[in-house]
């Protein structure tokens, strides 16, 4: 037993990996600080809660839970295929889009490869890259966002995959469809471009890239989306990729057959048709964004203009301390020091009263 050293047995990439740091759960803050009525603005969840139609569908679906889920997600894929004008064999379902991102890396990348992503980009990209033992190449950001020309220059013969989050989390930065189109056209076809559009629904319709249409033209492009944000299913875990059929076929070989469970499949099917819920999510987000932006302007706080459902605010050198003090005031936000943004905090857009609770707590801290 004394000779046992698990770390020496773990694969090389995993030994030095730091685990994903999730937003602090409400229950944990209640337990640790002994306070109630906590407001969580830390994980970009939908503040509306579950769609009523989904709640009903979940009740009905309880009956079937002793059975395995449909491993191929036939109904959900059929719905998605119709909605986006693609074939069902181009869709890969995931236990959240995080699952899809990991499947992509595990399917196509090995230890001899390089994977490109931007500084301040979603942490899952370096995480899945390092877990495989591949080399992550973080390209310095431009105005907190992706510097696409620099990312093109970073491509080497060893590059196998490029991750792009649009809008990006945690910065909320956004690439126009023109910028993206130019970039994708220049990437060699043996390099896969993963376009992570987790916040796609929040982007103004006129500004959205026709990314799914591009998949027909660029077989090396994969679009990933989620039900966790605007569709409000974060706790159920539902996401998907749209890709060339051969890409989907390869991913399917390592996908856990039941990676989406019966409840998440059913909820995703139902919420896709709930246009009222989606419209309301977008409206609440636009209102809340105005509320937080107005607060920042009024207090002279810098913020990164955001196209997502969150705002990343520069609160200064005391960011870690302010985060703690907000916790004690019952407001959970997200520190982003791990994203090389030690002076910022990311605040998810909540309901008006939740945003106000953050504003009030912050105001007290600023003047206290
Ligand atoms: C939230 C988020 C995701 C995915 O979340 P899932 O819940 O796993 O679908 C993916 N990419 C980005 C950039 C995100 O912010």
TrEMBL record:
Top-level division of the source organism's lineage: Bacteria
Record-listed E.C. numbers: 2.6.1.9
MF (Gene Ontology): histidinol-phosphate transaminase activity; pyridoxal phosphate binding
Name of the protein: Histidinol-phosphate aminotransferase
Assembly information from the UniProt record: Homodimer.
Record's catalysed reaction(s): L-histidinol phosphate + 2-oxoglutarate = 3-(imidazol-4-yl)-2-oxopropyl phosphate + L-glutamate
Domain Aminotransferase class I/classII large: 37-357
Pfam family, any one: Aminotran_1_2
InterPro entries, per database record: Aminotrans_II_pyridoxalP_BS, Aminotransferase_I/II_large, HisP_aminotrans, HistidinolP_aminotransfase, PyrdxlP-dep_Trfase, PyrdxlP-dep_Trfase_major, PyrdxlP-dep_Trfase_small
Modified positions (N6-(pyridoxal phosphate)lysine) in chain numbering: 229
UniProt record similarity statement: Belongs to the class-II pyridoxal-phosphate-dependent aminotransferase family. Histidinol-phosphate aminotransferase subfamily.
Name of the top EC class for this enzyme: transferase
Cofactor names: pyridoxal 5'-phosphate
One GO biological process term: L-histidine biosynthetic process
Gene3D superfamilies on file: Aspartate Aminotransferase, domain 1, Type I PLP-dependent aspartate aminotransferase-like (Major domain)
UniProt keyword list: Amino-acid biosynthesis, Aminotransferase, Histidine biosynthesis, Pyridoxal phosphate, Transferase
Pathway: Amino-acid biosynthesis; L-histidine biosynthesis; L-histidine from 5-phospho-alpha-D-ribose 1-diphosphate: step 7/9
CDD domains: AAT_like
């Amino acid at each position: 037993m004394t000779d046992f050293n698990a770390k020496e047995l773990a694969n090389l990439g995993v030994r030095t990996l730091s685990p994903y740091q999730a937003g602090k759960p409400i229950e944990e803050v209640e337990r640790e600080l002994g306070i109630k009525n906590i407001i969580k603005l830390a994980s970009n969840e939908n503040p509306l809660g579950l769609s009523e139609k989904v709640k009903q569908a979940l009740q009905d679906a309880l009956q079937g839970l002793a059975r395995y889920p449909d491993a191929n997600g036939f109904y959900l894929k059929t719905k998605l295929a119709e909605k986006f004008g693609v074939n069902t064999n181009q869709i890969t379902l995931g236990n959240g889009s995080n699952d899809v991102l990991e499947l992509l890396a595990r399917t196509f990348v090995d230890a001899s490869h390089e994977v490109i992503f931007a500084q301040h980009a979603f942490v899952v990209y370096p995480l899945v890259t390092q877990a495989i033992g591949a080399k992550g190449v973080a390209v310095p950001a431009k105005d907190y966002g992706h510097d696409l020309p620099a990312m093109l220059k970073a491509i080497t013969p060893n590059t196998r995959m490029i991750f792009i989050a649009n809008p990006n989390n945690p910065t909320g930065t956004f690439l126009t469809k023109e910028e993206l189109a130019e970039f994708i056209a220049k990437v060699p076809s043996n390099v896969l471009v993963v376009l992570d559009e987790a916040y796609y629904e929040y982007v103004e319709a006129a500004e959205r890239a026709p990314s799914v249409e591009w998949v027909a033209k660029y077989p090396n492009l994969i679009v990933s989306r989620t039900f966790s944000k605007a569709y409000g299913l974060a706790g159920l875990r539902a996401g998907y990729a749209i890709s060339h059929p051969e890409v989907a076929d390869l991913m399917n070989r390592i996908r856990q057959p039941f990676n989406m469970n019966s409840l998440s499949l059913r909820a995703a099917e139902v919420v896709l048709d709930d246009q009222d819920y989606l419209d309301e999510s977008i409206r609440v987000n636009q209102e809340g964004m105005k509320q937080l932006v107005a607060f920042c302007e009024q207090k002279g706080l810098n913020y990164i203009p955001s196209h997502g459902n969150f705002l990343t605010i520069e609160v200064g050198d005391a960011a870690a301390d302010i985060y703690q003090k907000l916790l004690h005031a019952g407001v959970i936000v997200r520190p982003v020091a791990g994203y090389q943004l030690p002076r910022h905090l990311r605040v998810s857009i909540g309901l008006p009263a939740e945003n106000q609770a953050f504003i009030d707590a912050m105001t007290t801290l600023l003047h206290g």
